[in-house]
Records
---
Amino acid sequence: MEFDALTIILTIAITVVLAYVQFNKVEPDVHPLVLEEQSSPAHIRNEGETVIHRSKSVPHGAPLITQPSNKIKTLYDVWQTGLALNPTGRSIMYMLQNQFSFVDSTYEQVDRRISGFGSGFVALTGLKPKTETPIGIMTPYSQESFIAQQAFYRYSFVTVPIHDWKSTDLLIEVANQTKIKAIIVSQKVLPSVLSVLGDCPSIKTIIVAGIYFSEEQTKIAAQHNATLVKFATLEYDGLSSPIEHVKPDPEDVAMINYNTKSSSLSKGVILTHANLVAAMAAFITSLSGAKRFTSNDRLLTHFSNGDVIAIWMSSAIILVGGSLVFPSGLMKNVLHDAQASMPTVFASTPVILEKIHEALHLTYGKGALFQRAYAAKLDMLKAGCITTSSIWDYIALGEIRSRLGGKVRMIVTTNPTKVETLEYIRAAMGIHVISTYGRTETSGIATSRSMFDYSSIEHLGGPVGCNEIKLVDDVEGKHTCTDVPNPRGE
């Protein structure tokens, strides 16, 4: 049988078209009906109130989520679980000072550092574990702050994160409200802390997370009856004289968190181990089975040390034996940090996500091929599909995805994040984004949008499984539960 040239050309053309259609066939990631209601409302309500809304995973009448299992009740238990699951696996990645590459440590290595620091701290300060003694942490989110927190959980101390970019007025108020006996500081803020020691008489030990402090600074501390010591010194000294763990109970206070969203001074929020474990467990439960964290996951977070979301996000990764990345802390290095560490989960504030969007758009957004590819991927997104395997990903968008390391499968952020930024991340980069909403009083999370909700409609999602939500009439503010188009209240 012979074929003329026209027949061959038509056959090839039809094959190409069919392959193109099949390759770009769009099916929604979940059925649209699943996303219509992201909470479960009760059937009755009281006068002046809305109905109570719960997570769809926790039926009304069932107990709210409090912990991932009966064996995991505190943040101490979380670390012990991760250590047992993956003792020789990578636990943390961090940059050495003045270097631009990451080093990593296993769970066993980090556990040794935690034990050393905790034992050294107790021996030096003489503070008694299990007495709800508050300890300040005034460093960026770093390996030192993480190791210190884990050590304080191990000996039932209370952490008090203090943003290192806040004024010394906040430090003075926090120190005097909580009567902190010791504080961990970065080398950068040490001079500021020393300058206000006279106004913070309770501080007797200053631990420097850095490689240097001067003899003059030691003298200044001594003038105020305070001891200055390096973080690494406590780690080393504690290894030779280990002290038995004093484990916390679920109702013990884990941290006192001060409002970081306001420049005004404010009262701290007391959070127990049970509060933070419940937040972690509820977030984990909100993830669909195939998207849950595993020991292969690596978390890079750009939340600060004082943001509660950083606590339960890192705990969720530790719980399964995954690893944490501690970034350089410089805004200009956000993309470099991601490329160098290749995370699978990225947690960040809306501001940083929007800056990433702007930077990538300036670099890649002007080309005709990108614009055509992005338009096609945006159509897929609006049809309910996020993918990294379309033809457009191969010919135009792969390099953009690689700017975050090429392996990110999930981004967790807070509201509000610009719709344009969310669409760019989901369409151009093929990454699922979960938007959460919470207050410090709710352990940093109260609601979460479904990770399959790609709509541009602005809403906060449904309640997570550790809490239930309702509105009550605000008579003074003239907000009522019968307001239209949406109920209002407090």
---
Amino acid sequence: MDKKIVDQFSEFEIPSYEQWRDLTEQSLKGASFEKRLITETYEGILLQPMYRKEDAATLPFLQSLPGMAPFTRGTKTLINGWEINQEINVGIPTSFNKVARHDLSKGQTSLNIVLDTPTKRGINANEATSEVGKAGLSISGVTDVAGALKDIDFGNVPFHVSAGANSLPILALIIAHLEQSGRQVEELHGCIGMDPLAELVESGALAYELEDCYTLMADITKWANENTPHLQTVLIHGNVYHDGGSSTVEELAFSLSTGVEYLQALTSQGIDINKAASSIRFSFSIGSGYFMEIAKLRAARTLWARIVETFGGNEEAQKMTMHARTSAWTKTVFDPYVNMLRATTEAFSAAVGGADSIHVSCFDEAIQKSTAFSRRIARNASIILKEEAHIARTIDPAGGSWYVEVLTNEVAKKTWGLFQETERKGGIFQSLIKEFPQNLVQQTASKRVGNIASRKDIFVGTNMYVNIEEKGIDWLAIDEASQIDDHINKVKGRAHRPVASLAAIPNKTEASIQVAKQGASLGEIAEATGRRSESVVSVKAIRPTRGAIQFEQLRQTINENAEKAGNRPKVFLANLGPISDHKVRADFAAGFFEVGGFDVIQNNGFTSAKEAADAAIASNAGIVIICGKDEDYQQTAIPLARSIKKADAQITVLLAGKPSEVDEIRFKEAGIAEFAHAGSNCYDVLSQLLDKKGVAAL
């Protein structure tokens, strides 16, 4: 800034924090500063209304630079780029190939292969017909891999494959295809990642002994270090906790504890700590808390560097590789185009936070498989952030923000405390056996669900500001049913090649590749390397869900009932006085009921209780809500409610507002059943009304 301008400002005294707070408290007119201006997050962190230089002055990582330990500010020194790593969940190999080649030609820079459930569990398509191709790509043999990866440039396109507990057969089939095609296996780079604990957490069961999984993990990692040095072999999913409703701290702490367990498993089997740590990639979900998510990624790098350093890893090994996926929890079925905005802001957080690769979820993710249109919109969001907003040109864009720096430190401290508690319980696996993570995530999820139900947490278009007349999306996914049947029949027609047990063979990965080249199937390799026909390890699962699902089910109930009955449940607004007297509460009441899909009957107000009662009864609405000023309620609400109940006792009467305890008793005695106000549990109120009206919930 020009010195002359600076000198002009010098005549003004710089106010102290205490002076600012005194003025702020005066403006609150007696309201509590703490209650009005300090926000407690799900992580137990108190967000202040203002942050100052003094708040961040003593933070231990503040003087570090991007690319330097502890990597709070990022692992890169020149650019802040990321791989555009969009998930491709097409089920049939040839169809997958067509989509993959198209998307890679339109700006996608990494091949993110989503596998269907049978493939991830080591089961051939012909043995698991109900789930084949539904959630992703179905692979049962080298033929399927060849069809899916035809003309893909392995040397220039990194892979990202989440393989659960079953990565060895998948890796073996991919390598077998490469070798049969005359390609150099060292070209393969990216991550074909194993994470048995994520599969255990999400499904509650594992068809492998955990020690067998760790033996396979070490074997794969040794093979990869020798043959595909740029391929990571472990992919830790914090997503399984996030999608169950966890806090940021819980997602990070349990992911880091998983990382420690895997490091111990790898190093105990002779793998150098530097190679073990460099073989691990993390995947985190990015939610709607913009600054919290930035802080999460920065804290994750800091803590992982500390963990690897404790294991004896060098500075290069301390660098965390992280993939970010925009949240599934925050996406909605209704008003799905809002999902474009949600996903874009979440991706913005991931980019600013320094993610190495990003998947931006398709806006129709909660409804169907992705389409060409939804994939294009999602892909372009990442391209725009990188190429037009130039986020990639700035290293650690959030660095130096006192708010972000303090928040990063708070997240790191909270996470480290929970991580240590998890380790004291014996590590992540023993903690899962004791249901420690499950119980914490359930508690947080319950808080979230309660806040969504009472509309403290807002989902635009679902629990607030809805359009009950909205139509379904225009772009529908292609029905793959007939193609899936053909695919299953082709798998059935392949020759069965029994594979002898590979359990006692030292180099299981190389042996699996050789039998794959000879025609062994995914399922045969999985069985030969330890997969059981039934689960052998089980814990209480953390099931993935979405925050808006309860309201979606409520609205779907009314929609289906409306199709059968020919109309929606009606709500009549008994507005008292002129528009200026009732509009605020009438608008609130209309929005309150519309989130459930009710048909709201509005009007310009009534001058007497009798006039309002007559209109309410004539409307044939089963629900009436009285809207007006508190003063009008004292004179009009009781006779109005009594008149309505006298004419038809089946009509349910509500009142918009929160009366005093004394008035509430009086109003209820007059027949008013419920009160709708900003603190109401909207979901519970609407659900109970449906029950009273005989509409069964889904």
---
Amino acid sequence: LTKYAKHHVYGTDRRRHAAVILFDIKAAFDSVWHDGLIYKLNQLRLPQYIMNYLMSFLQNRIASIEIENNLSKPFILNSGTPQGSPLSPLLYIIYTADSMNGIPDHTEHGLFADDTALWTSSNTTTSLNIRLQQSIDAFESWCKSWKLKLQPTKTELLHFTVHPRRIFKNPINVKIEDTIIKPSESTRYLGIIIDKRLNWRSHIHHVESKIAGRISLLRFLNRTAYEPNDKIMLNIFKSIARTMIIYGYPILLTANDKIWERLQIMENKAIRAALGLPIYTSVEYIHKISNVTKIKEDATTLLQPYIQTATSNNDNVLKNNLEEIFNQL
């Protein structure tokens, strides 16, 4: 999505306009229609013993509702996959695997469990509206056919343009179930906050606000320990702070150096807090005694096995995108 938007909005061809819509499906896992899912599983020609197991897993599940100590009569669930089961996300992926078959060629998509996104581009906002609405209508029609319901009020729309403050004569807005969806300043997708300028400042601001509490916790643990163990404290740092800072690194590697400087500042503060060092301790010293590599160096190193995994999985699109990011570092 990021590569697409940057290419079409900021690339040499300057197509100027791109938009993405991020759908929210109401009670997605709870709405999976059992008969429809079994039909799709049969289409996969799975061995009969696996089909028997999956049908047993789905069917004849009984539930009841309790309100103010009054329990309803038990009833059989005809939809939904059990919450918490590792099978449920896989079954949902199978159920929605063909959801993009009717989408026009001018639109691309992203599917990750119940997170669904569509994006497209055009020379004008009018044409962009038409393209996006066509794709939305196709997806909405599929949802109705397979008994899933979109939630327009929780669906997000982003308009990427080289003139983010400009007021357009024909602004981007689309309809879902007669509800008008207008563009947002930013939205969250798979844990990353994407803004209409694609500069990642909103995401970094969010991480800074979240990491502050964890840095305070590291400082508290170090000060209250009778004899703080640096190895244990660094393991806690890596568990609760570094993972948050480096999350989404393949995408963040497309950001400019200022973004990475802010990420590095967060990491430096967290290491000092974990080791009980004063704020004036030099960056070189804290990384030397902690044996923790700087955040961008680590992200670059982590990207290489990610490329190898994409290669072994024959995922050429992901492989090419990651290699392009790596080659630009």
---
Amino acid sequence: MIGVISYLVFFTTIAAILAIAVLGLNLQWGNTGLFNGGVAAFFGAGAYATILLGGTPQGEHIGGFEIFYPLALAGGALCAGLLAWMVGLLTLKLRHDYLAIATFGVAVAFESFVRNTSVMTGGALGLRGFERPLEALIENPFLYNILFLLVVVLVLASVYVFLQKLLHAPFGRLLRAIREDETAAQSLGKNPSEVRLTAFIVGSVIMG
């Protein structure tokens, strides 16, 4: 019975983590009309940065700075945001399918970078040997997985509430105005390029 529950807990945790990334994509695509085909790059950048900052040293690997885990999470999100800022400056003048193709190219380039920088990312095998956050403090694996799921669900709920408040604020209405008619929004004195870049960065930070 515990095995079945552990199985369900594992997949529920994965689903909750992916749901956080989907909320970021919804801000970009659903509310701003930015078809981001490079979600994997921003999600991966945040994940790698988090484990490299918060993990333990692993000999030949770069990273393992053992930073306090919430700070490592923030560092991963900032890394994803920095990548989004650089990508956004280069690609957000594109529209629709062209933006999707350009951002998908970023994901392909990121995958190639990961495969060829094994000293940092572990290459095709990924990063191994890193302990999960606070795993040493909770010896029971089943209890740890339950607590980890609760933390992930709490983060998911917090992100959802934050986005609901953001989207019901003037900024959220501006996003939808730009999505529906960018020219009309610009005629009212708004700066669509700046708003699109902001939404792209915020969405990517959430993914990371």
